[in-house]
């Protein structure tokens, strides 16, 4: 039952992203509490999920397959936190996730899949807005951070 509620919620989110904003070609949602979208950069994705504690998040997820590399990229972004949050238009939660391989930068709000349909519409609209904003803020920034002065990939990352 909960899985079907997630599938319905994310199907509308996916359809709107695909049809109105074009950042995805995904057609079908799965019955799970999260969904991720390719960023165009291998090792980085954008996602939305229902997190623990009655919160919904839009996120940048960094996972190049190696904890050290993920943390190095995260740390380089974290140094620019003030500028990034100013561009984003508000605070973000910077989750290095030292006990895991990946790192996450996210915007949270209150919400649960059991909320009323009108509230879920509000949550979904905000999630879409946040996903698009994260893509705008982090897209070129990540490209730049992953390249050296000569335009070649930075070996230490």
Task: Detail the topology: elements first, then pairings.
Elements: H1 2-21, E1 34-38, E2 44-51, E3 55-62, H2 67-78, H3 81-88, E4 93-95, E5 103-110, H4 117-145
Helix pairs in contact: 1-4
CATH class: Alpha Beta
The total strand number stands at 5
How many separate helices? 4
The largest pleated sheet is described as:
5 strands, antiparallel
Shape, principal axes of CA atoms: globular
Low-confidence stretches: none
CATH topology (fold) name? Yope Regulator, Chain: A
Structural classification: alpha+beta
Q: Report Rg.
A: 16 Å
Portion of residues within helices: 40-55%
Strand order of the largest sheet: 1-2-3-5-4
In CATH, the architecture is 2-Layer Sandwich
What portion of the residues fall into strands of 2 or more residues? 15-25%
Protein name: DUF4268 domain-containing protein
Domain DUF4268: 6-139
InterPro entries: DUF4268 (IPR025364)
Organism: Sorangium cellulosum (Polyangium cellulosum)
Structure at a glance:
By secondary structure, the protein is of the alpha+beta class. The chain is built from four helices and five strands, in the order H-E-E-E-H-H-E-E-H. Helix 1 (2-21) crosses helix 4.
Plain-language structure description:
This protein is of the alpha+beta class. It has one domain (35-145): 2-Layer Sandwich (Yope Regulator, Chain: A). It is built from four helices and five strands, in the order αβββααββα. It has helices at residues 2-21, 67-78, 81-88, 117-145, and strands at 34-38, 44-51, 55-62, 93-95, 103-110. It has a five-stranded antiparallel β-sheet. A hairpin with a 7-residue loop joins strand 4 (93-95) and strand 5. The model has no long low-confidence stretch (mean pLDDT 90).
């Amino acid at each position: 039952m909960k899985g079907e509620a997630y599938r319905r919620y994310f199907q509308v989110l996916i359809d709107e992203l695909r049809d109105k904003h074009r950042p995805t070609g995904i057609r079908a949602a799965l019955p799970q509490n999260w969904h991720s979208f390719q960023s165009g950069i291998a090792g980085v994705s954008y996602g939305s999920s229902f997190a623990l504690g009655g919160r919904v998040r839009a996120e940048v997820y960094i996972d190049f397959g190696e904890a050290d590399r993920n943390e190095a990229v995260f740390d380089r972004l974290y140094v620019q936190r003030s500028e990034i949050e100013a561009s984003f238009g508000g605070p973000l939660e910077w989750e290095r996730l030292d006990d895991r391989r990946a790192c996450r930068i996210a915007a949270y709000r209150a919400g649960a899949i059991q909320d009323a349909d009108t509230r879920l519409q509000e949550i979904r609209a905000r999630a879409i807005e946040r996903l698009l904003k994260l893509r705008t803020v982090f897209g070129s920034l990540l490209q730049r951070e992953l390249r050296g002065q000569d335009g070649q990939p930075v070996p230490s990352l």
